[in-house]
Amino acid sequence: GSNGRKMAMRNHIRSMFKSCGCPALFMTLNPADIHSPLMQVLAGINPEIIGRMTAFERAKVVADNPDAAAKFFDLVITAFRDYILRANRPGGGLFGDCFAHFGTVE
């Protein structure tokens, strides 16, 4: 992103530190699209042949289908937020109550 966008994100996360305190947990998520059968299905590959594909063939499917790769990324990150973190939901998630989170995509 632009320098202005980076500054805006830095200011946003700093304001979250001020209002919520320092984070108790920090992680970087990197969904492995090349190794995911779900990614291959989203790209239209027959599930019966996925197990027989080489790593190169799976990587080519990802490279040839950027729309499916973006959908896969969004699906995995949203599922993590909604079902693992359970942000702002009663009972909390896997790591306890999550009342604030910050995410960005490079």
From TrEMBL:
Ranges where the Helitron helicase-like domain occurs: 1-106
Pfam family, one: Helitron_like_N
Name under which the protein is recorded: Helitron helicase-like domain-containing protein
